[in-house]
Amino acid sequence: MSSAKGRPAAFRRPLLSVCAALTGMALTVVPLSTATVAGAATSDSQGKATRVSAWSPSMTTGGPSFDNQTIRMVVHSSIAGSGARITLSNRYGSAPLDVGEVDVAVQADGGEGTRGTIRNVTFAGSRHLTIPAGAETVSDVVPIPVRAGENLLVSLYVPGATGMSTWHSDAFDTTYIASGNHTGDDTAAAFGTTTASWYYLAGLDVLSSTAKGTLVAFGDSITDGYHSSTGTYTRWPDFLARRLGAGPGPQRLSVVDAGIGGNRVLTDVPNLWQGVSALKRFGHDALGQPGVKDVILFEGINDIGNNAGPDGRPLTAQDLINGYRTLIDQAHAAHVHLIGATLMPDEGNGYYSPAAEAIRQSVNRWIRTGGAFDGVIDFDRTMRDPLNPAALNPSYDSGDHIHPNDAGMKAMADAIDLRLLRS
Predict the structure, then answer these.
(1) Can you give the pTM of this predicted structure?
(2) Coil, helix or strand for 62?
């Protein structure tokens, strides 16, 4: 939905001149790295801690090029842990990525790190690395403790021209850019440029003494946080992570957000930064997370709103159901619990039409009654206007009649029956 036809023009980034050349590359199967060898929770040598994903945005192609610059990004951890590692991704790159240095620090404020917390990050013992095109790499363990809800700053120096970057376009957080190598700076004085995207940084995982696995929120711009307040961590997966942490006893699941604005279940989006289809990315972005136990699948409204069926033909409800069944089969083959979420109403948005609404209703009936998912979350029922079920509740509407405001995001998280989750 980034998506929805009413998206502000400022968010319609122009396609780069090489998009046509890269479209074929973006649709190929990209080799998975050790960052994505998961499926079941992994424990340390004593069996006392479980390695889980604490933060992991889904990456796409189409990002800007960098040259002799430091990129400082905010990572908001959903779980406490130790033994932190980061994942760098050149998954959608067309050339090797040269990385000069990387460090991690606890955020003090904005782009400033807390004095004394900076830690060098190594990869197979080296501070410098080259990541082949299409690959990802996981760091050595970084000796920095992580608290639930804490922000870390990851600073990445690229010494040469990178070409089009692997990125996550809509971070709803602030990234800081400096010329030259400023990875070791406590202050943000050199970081004169800011953006609202993440670049090359695809994950933070930790060893947790309490969590038994990772919960992945998989979806489109509603999951990605479109229209949530920047830097406040008010996406519905953020609210869910805090809810899990505030419950009785220790937090048993980490939560990561695998939403991409504009993403579709069945087909790739022409805008490269909105990602390949869920069918193509599910194995990597969801099932590839360290310690994955549960996935909440909440996607399909962009397929419906764009009438985007397979092979360029109009969409039917059965097309979307077939796509869901494929993802269910993939999850079950990986011994992962897949929970389906009903699609929310959108009357008043450009996506809405009587024909589209009929498909949404048919798909939601199947999600509720088909028995194919391991559980169901009825976001439609929670978020619809009691006086007009085809529209969002005005109290939860951000104004574009498809994306929730912060109150709506919290209502979504609160609507999830935690008994559906396996840990």
Answers:
(1) 0.90
(2) strand
